[in-house]
Amino acid sequence: MITYLEAIREAQHKALADDPRVYLYGQDIGNFGGAFKATKGLAKDFPGRVLDAPLSEDAIIGSAIGAAIDGMRPIVEMQFADFSTCGLNQIINHAATLYWRTNIPCPIVVRLPSGGTAGAGPFHSQSMEALYAHYPGLIVMTPATVEDAYSMLLEAVAIDDPVIFCEHKYLYYHLKAPALPTEALPTGKARVARQGRDMTIVAYSAMVHEALACADELASEGWQIEVIDLRSVKPLDTDTVLASVARTGRLLVVGEAFPWGGVTAEVIARVAQEGFSLLDAPPVRINAKDTPVPYHPNLWGTHRPTARTIAAEARKLLHL
Amino acid sequence: MSSPAAAPTSRTDHIQARYIEAYRWMLLARITEEKIATLYRGGKIVGGVFIGKGQEALSAATGMALRPGDVFAPLIRDQAGRFAFGESLLDVFRTYLGSRLGPMRGRDGNVHRGRPREGYLAMVSHLGAMVPAVAGVLLARRLRGESGTIGATCLGDGATSTGAFHEGLNLAAVEKLPLILVVANNQYAYSTPTSRQFVCADLVDRAAGYGVEGRSVDATDLAACLATLQEAADRARAGHGPQLIIASLLRLAGHGEHDDAGYVDPVLKKAARDCLTVAEQHIIGEQWATAADLKTWRMEVTRKIEDAIATTLREPPPDPGDEQWTAVSTPRLRDGFFEA
Q1: Is A124 labeled as catalytic in the residue annotation?
Q2: Is residue B331 included in any domain, yes or no?
Q3: What is the pLDDT of residues B125-141, one digit of tens each?
Q4: In the predicted model, is pLDDT for residue B333 greater than 80?
Q5: How far apart are CA A71 and CA B136, in angstroms?
Q6: Active-site annotation holds for A57
Q7: Scanning every residue of chain B, which has its alpha carbon at the shortest distance from the alpha carbon of A234?
Q8: Domain for residue B6, yes or no?
Q9: pLDDT at position B8, please?
């Protein structure tokens, strides 16, 4: 069995082996192998191409942009997604604008260990996908499966545009698959993770698994829930969502990020504008609470959406 | 614009030839920017205008210390250096006047221009941000086993207070990259005097803190600028790591053309020297050229600039109907955002 984290390591191994333009840059990623061991052994396998960086997110991302301009394909690790705010300027004002301004693409990958785990607290738990998706010029990937973690990271390296790769820390060790995939859906295509006819739940990243668990629970009550895994939030596959809503007439969208604006609001806005007549009931969105991510497991478990809280909202929506 | 014809036959001749070449870049920059300021006042420029009056000697010397294949990220007062590094007059006017044929195609303007594939990076407005970017280009070359090229980027005294300056210079020092950081201490960051910007006795003292080589230079003295920048470039090329240059001058214009710079201390203003005037006096004093020669050069330069303006004014502006309106280079990854 291979874990989600091992898939990310394997993808980086393959990228380094296949393309001499690829190098890895980040804090503690060299001989130490990274805070989560996502680069374990890579410095040994690829001498001089897996570099420890100073504690300087702005310079880490800024230098990756310069290297990309000069023909390289850097993969940058932010130790936690939360710390990417210290490199925000380089991401949104430099990497994201480069192609549009100069016609020169900026093929960098910024890996963001994202999302909450119990006991991680306000500064090691954030989900940043909505922030980055807001800016033109960035691709934002949110893989929910071992297979996607592997194939989407490889695709991220191959894409000429800057990619924000939101990998979920909660899935690192929990999620396992029998083998690495040999083929994959392209980025920009959502996946029907479970078929159903009574309601559509749209989710991404770790929330796909909460949605699937919710669907299991509701199945025992006789409901058939369709679960859509967005895979990437930018581009956002509105067509697959609309097709599902056309089948079910009910839409519930789940995200782990803070509630104001964001991916869940975007999905509902698009369905409301393009597929209003498909809806048999008002669409519902579920997010984390509008507070920083709490530290204690009791509070954290309530702050984020779970299968149980999603199921409670789903039951209300199914009875409308 | 070509360099003077006479081939150097000795060290003195070499110094003279370099000085004259630099002077001619300075002159080209000064008159170009005077024309741009005039066009701005006539309402012909889209957006703001920021000129480098008084900073031409430092900037020209920076551009001239670089060779083809090197990388350069100039800032807002580096027209002379941009020319010396190879920028064409048409690129300048096409950007300022908003021609669709310019390198930025109307998508960005004035000083935010470049040709990154040619090692000429296009600055973003966020000060200090280009320091790590140039370091990254140099890191890429090291990773590929390429040596011999260097990079330079320019900043003002204000930018030394940014986190990006610190992070970028420190990263370059850790990797011992051949990066020249040229700080023009022109006494004011917009209207903020240096006394509100830093309290160290001299910015060059910071070099020791980063473990890099530092040099001070009087930016109104062209010969000193040429010697200092060349020395820094030679040291960087020889593998001695980042070079911090602190150059002193007074900005002889507003922050931008919208700014009358009424905040500048009259004492500083009275003591200020114009590097272009100083260079002209030096050239005549050394009998490298006559006053009549200088007048001829000025006329030649002015004619070239006027030709470039005339060409550009006949060119079409960007057409929103032709614009792709996508910021990603991969068509299949364009977000299907509905456009009502």
Answers
A1: yes
A2: no
A3: 999 999 999 999 999 99
A4: yes
A5: 11
A6: yes
A7: B335
A8: no
A9: 54
Complex ipTM value: 0.96
Nearest CA in chain B to A96: B327
Element (H, E) at B265: none
* A157 at interface of B, judged by CB pairs closer than 8 A: no
The DSSP secondary structure of A45-77, one letter per residue, reads HSTTSEEE--S-HHHHHHHHHHHHHTT-EEEEE
pLDDT in tens, B149-208: 999 999 999 999 999 999 999 999 999 999 999 999 999 999 999 999 999 999 999 999
User: Per-10-residue mean pLDDT for chain A, 320 residues long?
Assistant: 98 98 98 98 98 98 98 98 98 98 98 94 97 98 98 98 98 96 95 98 98 98 98 97 98 98 97 97 98 96 96 96
Interior angle at CA B310, CA B306 and CA B313, nearest 5: 135
**Domain that residue B113 falls in:** 11-317
pLDDT band with cut points at 50, 70 and 90 for residue B11: confident
> Please, are residues A217 and A247 in contact by the beta-carbon 8 Å criterion?
no
Distances from the Cα of B137 to the Cα of A216, B101, B150, B198, angstroms: 51, 27, 9, 30
Q: Which residues pair with A74 in a beta bridge?
A: A23
Token output for A149: 């973690």
**CB nearest to A139's CB, from B107, B140, B328:** B328
- Domain A2-177, CATH among 3.10.560.10, 3.40.5.10, 3.40.50.970, 3.40.50.10070: 3.40.50.970
Q: Does A163 touch chain B (CB under 8 A)?
A: no
What are the DSSP E strand ranges found in chain B?
71-73, 151-156, 179-185, 188-189, 192-193, 213-218, 243-248
DSSP characters for B278-325? HHHHHHHHTTSS-HHHHHHHHHHHHHHHHHHHHHHHTSPPP-TTT---
Please give the tally of structural domains in chain B.
1
Which of the following CATH numbers is that of domain A191-318: 3.40.50.920, 3.65.10.10, 1.10.3720.10, 3.40.50.620?
3.40.50.920
In-domain check, residue B204: yes
Q: Kindly determine whether residue B137 and residue A69, on different chains, have CB atoms separated by under 8 Å.
A: yes
Contact criterion met (CB below 8 Å) for A187 and A141: yes
Same topology, domains A2-177 and A191-318? Answer is: yes
Six-digit token string for A240: 């697959």
Average pLDDT over residues B243-253: 97
Intra-chain end-to-end CA distance of chain A, in Å: 42
Q: How far is B98 from chain A (nearest CA, A)?
A: 13
CA A148 – CA A320 distance, rounded (Å)? 35
Residue B253, in any domain of the structure = yes
Residue A65, chain B, CB below 8 Å: the answer is yes
The full set of domain ranges for chain A reads: 2-177, 191-318
Q: Which residues in B lie closer than 8 A to residue A104 (C-beta atoms)?
A: 116-117
User: At B38, which CATH number?
Assistant: 3.40.50.970
Identify the sign of the CA torsion A144, A149, A155, A160: positive
Tell me the one-letter amino acid at B259. D
State the pLDDT confidence band at B337, using cuts at 50, 70 and 90: low
- Between CA A218 and CA A224 the distance in angstroms is 7
Alpha carbon distance A69, B265 (integer Å):
42
